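Next comes this protein.

***
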Amino acid sequence: MLTGHVYSTAAIIASDDVMEDLSPAERLVVRQAATEAGRMTRTESAARATAGLIALRAQGISIIETIDRPSFVTALAPAIPAIAAKYGVAQLELIRNVLV
């Protein structure tokens, strides 16, 4: 992930009824498993990104690994009002926190 644009996640969903039917120990196991699954997903995603870059280089493609984030933020500036209008200021702040 050279630019940080790609992140894939999977949700683990259970209804309140299902979770309430579990014992406290079982709920803990489910939560721990979900946390571990998240770690494994991030690890696998990073490994696939690395393998993808290796495959691209093997095809003779040049990869620029140093991203000029300040220039990206400057280039994005004209779109900020539209982003805020469409997604809200709170979401815009989350985006800004990633870009900085």
